Amino acid sequence: MSYTALYRKFRPVSFDDVKGQDHIVTTLRNQIRADRIGHAYLFCGTRGTGKTTVAKIFARSVNCESPVDGSPCGQCPTCQAIASGGALNVIEIDAASNTGVDNVREIIDEVSYSPTMGRFKVYIIDEVHMMSSGAFNALLKTLEEPPSYVVFILATTDPNKLPATVLSRVQRYDFHRITIDTIQARLRDICDAEQLDVEDKALKYIAKMGDGSMRDALSLLDQCTAFHFGERLTYDNALDVLGAVDTGVFDKLTNALYDRDVVTSLNILQDVVDQGRELSQFNNDLIWYIRSVMLTKTDTGLDDVIDINSEDMEALHATAARMDMDTIMRYIRVLSELTSQLRYSSQKRILIEVALIRLCHPEMSAVSAAAIAPRAAQDGPAPEAAASAVQAAPAQPSSEYKYVLDDLKARITSIEDKLATGDFTPAQRPVKKAEKPPALPEDVERIMREWSSVTEAVGSPLDMYIGSARRSLTSDGRLELVWAGDSRDALNYSRVNSAENKAQLESAIEGILGKHVDIAFTLTADRREMEEQHYDISQMFPGIEITTEDTTAEGYI
Q1: CA distance 348 to 118
Q2: Ramachandran region, residue 131 (left: φ > 0; alpha: ψ -120 to 50; beta: rest)
Q3: CB count, 10 Å around CB of 545?
Q4: Which residue among 26, 44, 132, 354 has the highest number of C-beta atoms inside a 10 angstrom radius?
Q5: CA 159 to chain centre
Q6: Cα distance from N-terminal residue to C-terminal residue, the chain
Q7: 292: burial class by Cβ within 10 Å (0-12, 13-18, 19+)?
Q8: C-alpha span between 136 and 128 (Å, rounded)
């Protein structure tokens, strides 16, 4: 005999077996006991919450020859015939593949015939929201006044798509998402019945991954036990099979972000990638963990609504205690924006890396905004950028909002006129180069002449990080390493700007010059700003070979 999936093998056969829907089970049982059975029901709820299962149990109960406390006895010929699928008075219809008026006409024609077995003829129409509007209209009269022996049970995951005329003719029952504890208890019962050796922590995680669906949780349990067949299913095994990440990793990453430790954050991401985890799920789980931090920060009395075991709860409380609410909300906002980007991207890792760097360096966004504002005031924004600004304008009081929109529209019109007449081409606007300093301080000149020795002393990979930077001079005469604002340079800047790497670079220079020299690190908004504000002092040493990357600003505005 072929193997039967767990969710099919352990499908409830009586109301006692239905978990997490007590408000519905109790009502239906009372109707059966009092013989007050309605003619049309609507079962709503997300996938895997028991809509079709309860419909089948109800169909057996109303036809059972000797029901037990409102549930089918399972022993009479009617119950056995319905359970085996051989009864003609219980008809299951998939509305997703029977959407037309002709399909409804067949139902209407069959309704006129009384049941050959049992008291009621029960029609279970699954995914009823898929029916066409014409089919709904054809069904209305029969749904409102069916024969006394007919019961309609409509099941749907999207009741909002049903016409109001249908909703007004049925008794509506909303199936709740099943709680994690309820799913875990059911999984434990099934594991005991199947003699499966599964760790409680693994069951809790599988229940959480079921996302309120008993069927999904059972399918995941099936998958995990099949992979580790004959072995004890541990929490780590479940993580491996489902491609998930341990809660401890999210706690470590959240603390690294709060400490602005880019290196540790990226190393954690590297470990996640090496383990083959799915990055979109990783991002969603990270948002979920930070949400738990937010709830804990709000009120410690909310522990019951946080899906984290007691072992990890202590670490969660410690993390929440050291973080401020503004930072937590910024993390959730940035990572939520990342979710939609990951959905259609083939470079998920890069997007997550950039997001982690943004979280570690909130000043990057402020620098970019400050650099763009003066230029926009002087030159006006590019049409595409201005249009985006109009669409993304935050909600303001009506008069001020209208003023902002009118101002941006005027700028767009002005720039479009310049582009049409050829008076102004953004990509060809000349770059105003930064002025050459009259002279260099002695220490800076010595460093420049010994630069190859400096890069050799710091070694790999730090030499590559500083190799992408421009060497310039600050207003107070210090050596300045400058990176442009693109994602690659931003990553190199964040790596060099750590306390450890900065100390290593200054130590290498001190070993060559014999004294300590302070160096400034700068991240610009883009390459045009680098060209206009930071002179490349390596050009003052034509006889010395210094490797730099191309920093032309062509194409930037």
Answers
A1: 58
A2: beta
A3: 9
A4: 44
A5: 25
A6: 71
A7: buried
A8: 9
H/E run at residue 36: none
Find the angle CA(527)-CA(339)-CA(348) to the nearest 5 degrees.
60
Q: What share of the chain is helix, strand, coil (3-state, %, to 5)?
A: 60, 10, 35
**Residue 352: what residue type?**
I
What residues have CB less than 8 Å from 495, skipping those under 6 apart? 262, 263, 461, 462, 465, 501
20 burial via Cβ count (<10 Å: 0-12, 13-18, 19+)? buried
pLDDT for 421: 57
User: Strands, DSSP E only, in 5-118?
Assistant: 40-44, 90-94
Vertex 377: Cα angle to 375 and 379 (nearest 5): 65
Name the pTM for this structure.
0.57
pLDDT at 553: 38
Written as one string, the DSSP assignment of 191-250 is HHHHT--B-HHHHHHHHHHTTT-HHHHHHHHHHHHHHTTTS-B-HHHHHHHHT---HHHH
Strand bridging mode 470-473 / 479-483: antiparallel
Confidence of residue 302 (pLDDT cuts 50, 70, 90): low
pLDDT value for 534: 87
* Per-residue pLDDT, 372: 41
Helices (H), 246-382: 247-258, 262-274, 279-298, 310-322, 325-343, 348-360, 363-379
Q: What is the pLDDT of residue 414?
A: 60
How many residues does this entry show for the chain? 557
Containing 125, the helix (H) or strand (E) segment is strand 121-126
Whether 390 shows a pLDDT value over 80: the answer reads no
User: Which DSSP symbol is given to 427?
Assistant: G
- State mean pLDDT over 21-45: 91
What is the Cα–Cα distance from 162 to 41, expressed in whole angstroms? 13
pLDDT digits (tens, 9 = 90+) for 212-258: 889 999 999 999 988 888 888 888 888 778 766 778 888 999 999 99
